[in-house]
Amino acid sequence: MAARLAVSRWRAAPAAAGRGPLLSCRRWSGAKADTLYDVVVSGGGLVGTAMACALGHDIHFSDKKILLLEAGPKKVWEKLPETYSNRVSSISPGSATLLSSFGAWDHICNMRYRAFRRMQVWDACSEALIMFDKDNLDDMGYIVENDVIMRALTKQLEAVSDRVTVLYRSRAVGYTWPYPFTMADSSPWVHITLGDGSTLQTKLLIGADGHNSGVRQAAGIQNVSWSYDQSAVVATLHLSEATENNVAWQRFLPSGPIALLPLSDTLSSLVWSTSHEHAAELVGMDEEKFVDTVNSAFWSDANHTDLIDAAGSLLQSAVAFLKPTKVSARQMPPSVARVDAKSRVLFPLGLGHAAEYVRPRLALIGDAAHRVHPLAGQGVNMGFGDVSSLVRHLSAAAFNGKDLGSMSHLTGYETDRQRHNTALLAATDLLKRLYSTRAAPLVLLRTWGLQATNAVSPLKEQIIAFASK
Amino acid sequence: MSFSIYSENQFSWTPQTNPWVFSEYSMMWFKSYRITFACLSRMKIYRYPWTRLYGTSQTTVDSSEIKTFVALAHRWWDEQGVYAPLHSMNDLRVPFIRDNLLKTVAHHQPGKPLSGMKILDVGCGGGLLTEPLGRLGASVIGIDPVDENIKTAQHHKSFDPVLEKRIEYRACSLEEIVEETAETFDAVVASEVIEHVIDLETFIQCCYQVLKFGGSLFITTVNKTQLSYALGIVFSEQIAGIVPKGTHTWEKFVSPEKLESILESNGLSVHTVAGMLYNPFSGYWHWSENTSLNYAAHAVKSMRQEPPVPAGFVFTGKTEELHDKDSINPGVQEELKK
Which family, according to the similarity comment (chain A) (predicted)? Predict the structure, then answer.
C-alpha cells in the first residue's frame, strides 16, 4: 500500500498556493508526448464511475477527453444472478435523479430494486420511536444492490466510449502537482504515473479512490478521521412469510444499530453495526443461532427499564393530549426465517472528513472526501451529491471556456458540499454516540427527543428533505 | 510601420482581492506591487507618447521596460495575484460574447459553441480572454503591442495542444493588421483597452474595417463619471495605492453615450450596453443596471459604407488634432517607420 503511494522526492513548496504547504515531487519540463486528458477520475467505484458517466454524458463536455482509472479488473456480467448480493445501498431520491440524468436509472429499473415508503426507527431502551413517511406516500428511497448500480453505470459508460476511456488494472503510483501559476518550462498539468510506468497528464484530477485515498494522501490534504469501535455485519435474510415489504426498519441497540432493508417480498438485507468481537461472533455462528439472534435483537424488550418506560409514556400522553389525531403505534418488523449461506460479511466502520476537498487541479469526491457511519444510510448518497454538484460546476465552467482545474469554480463545489456534508457527518456521529449508551440520563434525553421529533411533522419533513438530496 | 499606442496592461478597477488571499500573499503581493509601481511608472513614458512628440527617437518600445515587464509577465496567469479581477471578469465577459455570438447562428456544435468563428482579441495581454474563447471552439487571433505579453501568452497556450491550434498571437497594433485582415472577423473584442487608446475614432474605424458585415464588436471599459474618478483614480491610485499613480487618465475614460455616438457614426449599431460592478470583498463581478463605473457594449457592423479614414496614411500638422472630440488629448500620434 505504501509503495503504491510512493513519490520520488518531497519538497514543500512555498505557501504561494494559499492552502498550506503543497507537497510536490519532481517537476519536469513536460513530456509533451504524454496524452493530455481534460479530466482523470482516479477510482472506479460507485462514485467514481458515476462521475465519469455524468461528465461523459454532459453536453458541454462533448469534445473533452475523460479517463477513468480503476485498479481492479473489468467485471463481466452475463446476466443478473438469482441470488441477491449482500452489499446494498439505500439510494435517496436525489441520487436517483442524478442516475436518471444520464440514463443509468433505467437500467436499474430493468434489473431490480426495491422502493420503500416508510422508515421506522426506534430505541431498544424505551418505547420511543420515530416513523418517517412522505405525505403522499411517495417513495422515500430505494434499496439497490451495489453490483446492480455498477452494472448500470458501466453500461452507460460504454455508451459514451468515444469521450470516456476506462483503464482497468491501472493503479496510480505517483502524482506530480503543478505550480500555482506558470513558471518557465514547468508543466501546468497534473502528471500521473501508473503502475506499469506509463505517464499521463490531466487538467483536472478527481480523487474518488475511497476512504484510504491515495490521491488525498499524495496531495497532503489533512484528514480528520477516527475509527469507531464497531464493525458492520451484512447478510441477506429470508423472511418467514412474504409481505409487502416496503418499510425500512432500524433499531438502536446499545451495542449499535441494526437495520433491515427490503429487497423483495421475501428477502431483506441486514446491516448490523456492533462491536468488533460481537460482529466476529455473528459471522462465525451457525445459521439458526444467527437467525434467532437477529429476531431477538428486533423483538426483545430486555433493555427496557421501568423509569424510562414511565417517563416515555408520560411524554407520550402529553403529546397525545396536544395532538390527539396523531397515532404512532410501534410496529414490529417481519420476522426472519433463514439467512443466505455465505452472505455474512463484516467490515470495520469509521469516520473521516478531508479538511479540503479541492486544490488547484484536484477535487475529492465520495469516500475520499468523507466517510460516515451507515446508520443513516447516507454514505453513497453524499458521494452522489458530490458528483451532482461537481458536474454542475464543471459543466458551467466548460461552457464558459474556463480552465477546468481553476480554483474559482472548484471552491464553489467545495463550499457547496462541505456545508451539506459536515452537517450530516456531525449529526450521524452525534446519533451514534447518543445511542451507544445505556446510561439513564442520556436514554431519557434521547427518548424524549425522539418522541418530540416524531410529534413535530414539519421537523420530520425537514429531516427527510435534507436526507433526500 | 505605423501604429497607435495603447495598452491593455492595466485594468480599470483593481481593488484588493479577498482578504484571506491577501494575508497569504502579503509578501509576494507587496513585492509584486513594488515591481508594478516601478515598471508602470516607466510604462507611462511608453504609453503617453506626446511626451516624446518632438523627440527624435523612432523606437516605441523602451528596452529597459522590457526587462521590468519580465517580472510582471508571469503574473498574468496567477489567478489569485495582481490580475485576479481580470480573471474573474471572464465570468461576465465570456458569456456576454458567447451568448451574443450564438444568437447569430442557427445551430452550434455542443462542446464547441463558437467553432467556425474567427475572433480578434485586441490588446489581449497575457491571453486571459483569448484562451476561453479558444476553448469554446473559435479561431482567435490575439494582438498586443507589448512583446512580453505576447511571449507570456504564447508560452501559456503552448501546453495545451487544442489551444495551440486555435489561437494565434501577434505582437503588433491594430492598425498594422487592418489591411491584411480586412473583413475577415466574425467578432472583435476590445476588453479594457479603449480607455488607453489615444484616438478612439480611428480605433473604432479599424475595428469596423476588420469586421465582416454583421460581425460583432465587444467592448468593456470604464465610464467617465465622478464616481469613476473617485473610486478608480482617487481611491485606487492615490489613497489605497492599489493602482499606481498615473496609470489611468480620467480624461481618457469613455462614457457609454460618447462610445455609442462614435460607434453609430462609424457604421456599428449598438445592441447592448450593460453595467458591470466589481465586489472587492468577494472578488466577483456582477452585471448591473448602473453603468457609472464599468460597462460592456455590444455593437454590430450593420452598414456597408466606404471606410471613412483608411488607416496607415501619413498625416501632418495639427489640423487633425482639432478634429478630435476629446478636448484634452493632443490627437492621434502616428509615426511612420520605414
Answer: Belongs to the UbiH/COQ6 family.
Cβ–Cβ gap A182/B132 under 8 Å:
no
Q: Do residues B296 and B276 lie in contact, with contact meaning Cβ atoms separated by under 8 Å? A: yes
Buried b (16+ CB within 10 A) or exposed e, A51-64: bbbbbbbbebbbbb
- Identify the residue among B75, B79, B88, B98 best suited for mutation to test binding to A, counting A beta carbons within 10 A and taking the highest: B79
Q: How confident is the model at residue B31 (pLDDT cuts 50, 70, 90)?
A: very low
pTM of the model: 0.82
Are A29 and A130 in contact, with CB atoms under 8 Å apart?
no
CA of B95: which chain A residue's CA is closest?
A400
Asked if the model's pLDDT at residue A30 lies above 60, the reply is no
CB A315 within 8 A of CB A451: yes
Q: Please tell me what DSSP assigns to residue A222.
A: -
Put simply, whether B24 touches A (Cβ < 8 Å) is yes
On whether any CB of chain B is under 8 Å from the CB of A186, the answer is: no
B95: confidence class by pLDDT, cuts 50, 70, 90: very high
pLDDT of residue B4: 38
**Whole-angstrom distance, CA of residue A204 vs CA of residue A177:** 11
By percentage, how much of chain B surpasses pLDDT 90? 37
Q: Name the pLDDT band for A182 (thresholds 50, 70, 90).
A: low
Cα separation values, B63 from B6, B10, B67, B235, Å: 17, 19, 7, 32
B192 is in an annotated binding site: yes
Say if residue B112's pLDDT is above 70.
Answer: yes
Q: Is some CB atom of chain B closer than 8 A to the CB atom of A65?
A: no
Each residue of A127-175: pLDDT tens digit? 888 888 877 778 889 999 999 999 999 999 999 999 999 999 999 999 9
User: Measuring CA to CA, which residue among A169, A226, A183 is closest to residue A24?
Assistant: A183
Cell triple for A313:
409514556
Q: Which residues pair with A230 in a beta bridge?
A: A275
Mean per-residue pLDDT of chain B: 74
* B90/A407 CB distance under 8 A: no
The pLDDT tens digits of the residues spanning B120-155 come to 999 898 899 999 999 999 999 999 888 888 998 998
Residue A33 contacts B where some CB pair is shorter than 8 Å: no
Contacts of A144 (CB under 8 A, 6+ apart): A88, A89, A91, A108, A112, A113, A114
CB spacing of B74 vs A181 below 8 angstroms: yes
- Residue A64 touches chain B, beta carbons under 8 Å: yes
Nearest to residue A50, comparing CAs of A33, A66, A29?
A66
Binned at pLDDT 50, 70 and 90, residue B239 comes out as: confident
What is the Cα–Cα distance from B330 to B4, expressed in whole angstroms? 13
Whether B80 shows a pLDDT value over 90: the answer reads: no
Which residue do the cell numbers 393530549 mark? A321
> Least CB-CB distance to B79: which of A62, A184, A406?
A406
Q: Do B79 and A182 touch (CB under 8 A)?
A: no
* Beta carbons of B256 and B289 less than 8 angstroms apart: no
The answer, for A28 touching chain B at a CB cutoff of 8 Å, is no
How far out from the chain centre does Cα A307 lie? 38
Average pLDDT in chain A: 87
Among chain B residues, CA nearest to A360: B79
d(CA B114, CA B94): 11
HSE toward the beta carbon, residue A4, CA cutoff 13 A? 11
Tell me how far apart the alpha carbons of residues A419 and A459 are, in angstroms, rounded to a whole number: 19
Q: Is the pLDDT of residue A365 over 60?
A: yes
Return the ∠ at Cα A315 (arms to A314 and A319), rounded to 5°.
125
Average pLDDT over residues B232-250: 69
B191 belongs to an annotated ligand binding site: yes
Backbone angles phi, psi at A150, to 5 degrees: -60, -40
Q: Work out whether strand A114-116 and strand A345-354 pair parallel, antiparallel, or are unpaired.
A: unpaired
